[in-house]
Every structure is written in structure tokens, then in C-alpha cells.
Amino acid sequence: MITVLLADDQPMVRAGLRALLDTERDLSVLGEASDGREAVRQAAALRPDVVLMDIRMPELDGLEATRRIVAARTSRVVVVTTFDLDEYVYEALRAGASGFLVKDAEPAELRRAVRVAARGDALLSPGVTRRLIEEFAARPAARRDESRLTALTAREREVLGRIAQGQSNGQIAETLFMSPATVKTHVNRIMSKLGLHDRAQLVVLAYESGLVRPGGGV
Prior knowledge:
Layout: E1 2-7, H1 11-22, E2 27-33, H2 36-46, E3 50-54, H3 62-72, E4 76-81, H4 87-95, E5 100-102, H5 107-118, H6 127-137, H7 154-164, H8 169-176, H9 180-194, H10 199-208
Parallel strand pairs: 1-2, 1-3, 3-4, 4-5
């Protein structure tokens, strides 16, 4: 059973999300929060597998709430936003969110997002996610810190670059002539060396460090 916490300041939105999730045998909504501060408290108390987090909320916004929940390692966070190109979404990914959804997403996409996040993966397949990351990584304010990559081997950097381009483990294996098991080992080592916990954070770091250039080049 995958447990979920809903964090949104609009009761109707929370009711709609609950209705979509509670009908599934493997999904269960443990609680609801109407602001970011309450979301942090409930995540600590209930320890849900996934928090569906709105960005714009009173008391404490979804960005800071995401940062605190991820830092506490209580749950994975999927940001749910009204706009598919929202600067705050990029910041949420940097804070450790495992991906994001727009509020008008199809019910099946919402359920899939929860399941993907719960198993430790990130929502990187939609092209809009990559476009958003590229857009904000390309801004002058984006930090470039190549020193964070010094612990990686040349092969690990190669794998990281492919992850940042949105390739799955299977696609990376085919491109780099490795077995999927070897790719998975590389990915796990990269996350361990960099102190990151999922592919979304790997993508952000790849762009910020300059390993991958906005537009798709490595």
C-alpha cells in the first residue's frame, strides 16, 4: 500500500485528489494539510510514502515545505502546480522534489506519478520537465559548480549526462553498450557520491554544473 499526504490550501482540490487516489487498491490518503507548515508536521507524524505538494500556500510555501520534508527524509514529494512552466517548480526540484504535475493532469497520470515517486524514481519523462530545467539552468543566476563532479569517474559522468537528457536505464544501456544492471549500479554510485536521492536531483545538478548544456548537448 502506497500512502499519500495531500497538501493544498483549496479544500475542493484536496477532495478531488482524494477521490482519485482512494479508489485505487494500492493507494491510500493518510491525511490532508491546508498549508506548508501543517504539511511538514503531518509528514513527520504520518510518514507517508508520497506528499502531493501545492506550491503557493499560506504560512509556509510549498517550496520551503518540500525542502524541509526532503531534508528530514520522511517522504518523497511531488509538486502539483497550476502552471507547467513555473519558476518555483524548478526550485522545488532543486529542493529535492521527485517531480511535478500540473493540476489539470489526467487521473491516470496523477496515479502514475504517485506510484513512480513511491518506488524512488522521478517524473522526468514529460518533455515539459526537461524544458523547464533547461530554461532555468540557462539563466545567468544559475550556479555552475563543477567541483561537485570531481568524485565521479569518466564513465559515471557519461551516465549522468544521459540521465540529464531524460534517458531511461534501458536507453542508457543501449547507447553506452552496457547491461541495464551495470547502468543501475552506476546510477546508484553516482547518487551515493553526490549525496542525492533521485534522478530529478541528478538532472538539476548536471545542468547547474555545466556537464549538460541547455538545449541537450553534453
